[in-house]
Amino acid sequence: MRSAAQRTVEIAKKIWHWFGIFCAGFSVIAFSAILIFGVFDGLKRDEQAERERQAGLASAPSAAPTTRTPVSWTYKGAVCADGTLSFSIGKQGACSHHGGVAGRWSAADGTQVICRNSPPRTQERIDRQMAKFGRIVC
Fold this sequence. Notes:
Largest sheet: 3 strands, antiparallel
Radius of gyration: 36 Å
Order of helices and strands: HEEEH
Strand order of the largest sheet: 1-2-3
Number of helices: 2
Structural class: alpha+beta
Distance between the termini: 93 Å
Helix content: 40-55%
Strand content: 5-15%
């Protein structure tokens, strides 16, 4: 005969065993449900996005060709990037505390800009930069 303590241990082991099986089964079901519903949700979103894209294509007017107004810039010489005039441009370390060496450019309409690279080539790009940044970016 087994003692009461041994029977209690066996019962506890069986309960623990069945509890483990229950938890494993539940987690498999829960994971499957999450996976299935997640895939369906993703498919629904993809279908909805495709419908919206098709609707946008159907209702969008044909795009007229855009005209670009070129801007001609004239190079006016080298200065420091912050606008400081330096007499050491062309030497190593010139304008090192002023943002580096840049070029001064002038447009036909009198617009002047200091750029480390070349300035924007079209008026549309200048207008976009002015709207977005409040200045010409180059």
